Structure formats: C-alpha cells, structure tokens
Amino acid sequence: MQPPQVIKSNALIEASYRLTPAEQRIMLACIAQVRRDQPITDEVLYSVSAADIAKMTRSHSKTTYDELAKAALRLKRREVWLTERANGDGSHEETLVTGWVQSIRYRKHEGRVELRFTKDMLPYLTQLTEQFTRYALEDVAKMTSSHAIRLYELLAQWRGAGKREVEIDWLREAFQLGDKYPAIKDFKRWVIIPAVEQINEHSPLQVKWEQRKTGRRVTHLTFTFNEKALEGPQKPCAGKPKATSSKKTQGDSGAIYGIPMAMIEKKARPGELCEDTALRLLDEAKQGRVGEK
User: Fold this and answer.
1) Which of 52, 59, 109, 180 is the most exposed place for a label (fewest CB within 10 A)?
2) Same-domain check for residues 133 and 152
3) Which of 107, 138, 169 is the last residue of a domain?
C-alpha cells in the first residue's frame, strides 16, 4: 500500500503563510486524505487523532489530545495569502486571502479532531492535473522546524530540475517572518541552516546552498539538491529496474484509483510517478483520450 501523499497546487506551495510544526502536521495529515479521483465539497470532514500524530512523527511520547486541540484551534485562525496570475499566465497578479479550515469538531473521548477545509481552499487541493507538487507525508513528518517543511516543499516543486534560486525578500514574505531576523547572518542562522539540516536528515533530498549578491547586498539563495535514493513512493513509475529482493514494490500488483498497475506502468512517461500517471489517465479518460500515449 502506498504511503500517504501530500498534493498541493504550486500556488499554495508558494503562498504566504505561517504555521507551527504542530499546525503543519494537522494540515498535511488532512491534505493526505483528500481523494484525487472525484470532486470534493467543503462539507467533507477530515479526521486527525493524537495517535495519528504520534505515529506520523514516530515519537516515544504521544501527543496529548489537549495539544492537538490547541493546535487545531490556532489553525482555525490562520490566514493564507495566495497569489496567482489571471488565467494562469496573465500580466496582472491577483491575491486571495482565505483561511485553511472553516470549522472544527472536537471528539475528546476519541482523542481526535475533525476539520472542514474552506471552500476557497479546495481548488488548491483537489482535481489537480497540472501545476502541482506531490511528496510523501513521511518525507516531512519528523521535521520540527516549520521553515524546514516549507523549504522542502519549495524544493520538491523543482524536483526535476535539482536546483532552485529564490529571492531572500520573497522567501521572507512567503514564510511571513515580518521583522524577525532582519540581518542576513541571523536569517541564515535561525532559518536557512536549521531548515537545510533537517531536510538532509529526515527527507529523501540531499541539499546544498549558497548565497548570491546583487551589488554588495546578499539578495538570493541558490539551492542544489538530489535524491538520496530512488526508492519507495518517489520512485519513477516508468523505467523501473528489476527488484533485487523479495519485497514487493508498489508496481508489483493492484491498482491506483481503479486503474490496473499494468496499464499505469505501460502509459507512464519517463520520470513520472505512478499516482501522477493514474491522475493523468483519469483526466484523459474524461476527455476521451485514454488510449493515447
């Protein structure tokens, strides 16, 4: 069975918001439950328990229900600023300010909370066939820095390129740092260095970075990265090497979204992940092009 996957639109990956690690885990655990093969309304409830969070982080001391409930309540009050261009590539930017969730139901006797996404948030989480980023929930589950989780997503968005350069001012805005760490040495010490260390320790990526100046001022950071190993959920569906052990891979049998793995592997494009292939085939089927390569 494939590990839980997080899929977000690239606009949400690059959005401006600030969440604590506890709030991030709740949000990502819910996003990983979103169905990709059918429309979702804002009436659907997504459930997260204290036991789920403890399992996700592989922690010895279980997260208490009170901590989970407090993080969920803070999440209810958080805003996210999403900036897009009209019709995708328009010359004028548009910004949407919305919340993550519209309501929370507490089930203390079960040690869990249930959340509903806001209606405005749904297009950035469901029915995504292009301009989205996908990674395994376990890639970030053990990170304790919210900056590490955000930076990992920004790098995963450019996974195929293995390199990404960002403006420091833009990154500060995306992380909603405000007046914190105005000096570049403090920004690197408290944000970038710990984030990269956690990505290197806990994720499938190995990252290096350097700074670039414009004139005498450091204005950009350049990140170069590669996969530690092409194993598990991030392994391309096409061109898969033969198994070297008796352990089954996700492509050995079964189906994804009702599509047989044999068809998925046959139709997969070079470097494409199996679930991404399944999503593409579903979209092509709706348009009557399922038989095309």
Assistant:
1) 109
2) no
3) 138
Q: Are residues 122 and 182 in the same domain?
A: no
The total number of structural domains in the chain stands at 3
Contact status, residue 22 vs residue 143, Cβ threshold 8 Å:
no
Helix runs in 19-114, H state only: 21-31, 50-57, 65-77
pLDDT tens, position by position, 141-197: 999 999 999 999 999 999 889 999 999 999 999 999 999 999 999 999 999 999 999
Rounded CA-CA distance 99/114 in Å is 16
Tokens of 178: 């405000």
- Strand-pairing partners, residue 156, are none
Bridge partners of 105?
A: 114
Domain match, 226 and 240 both: no
Mean pLDDT (whole number) for 251-261: 61
Q: What are phi and psi of 140, to 5 degrees?
A: -115, 0
Buried b (16+ CB within 10 A) or exposed e, 265-286: eebbeeebbbbbbbbbbbeeee
- How far apart, in whole angstroms, are the C-alpha atoms of residue 212 and residue 221? 6
Q: What residue has token string 């309304």? A: 41
- Tokens 């090497």: give the residue: 241
Residue 291 lies in a domain: no
Query: Is 161 a member of any domain?
Result: yes
User: DSSP code of 235?
Assistant: S
**The pLDDT of residue 246:** 32
26 vs 52: CA distance, rounded Å: 9
Shared domain for 280 and 198, answered yes or no, is no
Enclosing domain of residue 265: 235-286
